[in-house]
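Appendix B, record 7
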Amino acid sequence: LHDTIEFNEFLQMMSYQQSERITVESLIDAFRIFDKDEDGRLSVAELKKVMSTHGERMAKRELEEMINEADAKSDGFINYEDFCKMLCEERNIKSSLKRASESRRKLDHNRNLS
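Structure tokens (predicted):
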């Protein structure tokens, strides 16, 4: 049997690894850890890879549930705004949500420079 972890629990675990203050740059860096193909969204495969790197072996169904929990567009992916929203809600940092769109533009700009 595999222990399960809810997506919000995973985000909370990740947030503890961050400093008390979340910056736009730290959100972009955290998102990039997951977004291996740099397409601006997280898939089940990308989430599985990161979770296994952190010692969490999860079934595809569990990963799909995690994504569905955060997926505002219901497209099967977590985009940058979904990621920021979930992370900020877990940390009760509502002010960071306002900057999510700005940081998304910065992420896109940085990607275009690469």
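Remarks on this record: The first helix runs from residue 7 to 16. The chain has a mean pLDDT of 76.
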